[in-house]
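Hi,

Apologies if this is the wrong queue. I'm a grad student, and the batch job for Glyoxylate/succinic semialdehyde reductase 2 chloroplastic from Zea mays produced an output file that my downstream script rejects. I'm not sure whether the problem is my script or the file. Here is the sequence I used:
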Amino acid sequence: MPAAAFFSAALPPPSRTLSRRLVVSRAAAAAASASASSSSGWQGGGGVEFQGKVGFLGLGIMGAPMASNLIKAGCDVTVWNRTKSKCDPLLSLGAKYEPTPAQVASSCDVTFAMLADPQSAAEVACGSSGAAEGLAPGKG
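Support response: The file is valid. Your script probably expects a header line. Output copied below for reference.
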């Protein structure tokens, strides 16, 4: 069974702050880039070009603009949302659509999830046809 990491964050109480940093190694980015069959690319601030397929689950207030920016930067983006009509503006920009989180994860090298709450995150990641079903070694 493939290993996977799924992160969920909620807003901290007003008296506390939350600071987290996600670091992706150049080797991991290079491996994903080398295995990608897409000719699209994105040049990150660290000087590593990523040419893989990107999945995006959750197209709400934060997810839609993030996915839109990836598309505008030239990334090959596949999207999914519980309310399919929220995918339409991104499809008009060139995104692809898959009907389940599992299908997004299986068709992409990297999959992001931007969901409303921990319950939604757990359902989309581990529920029926969840993203975890589509993960394989080397994908995340």
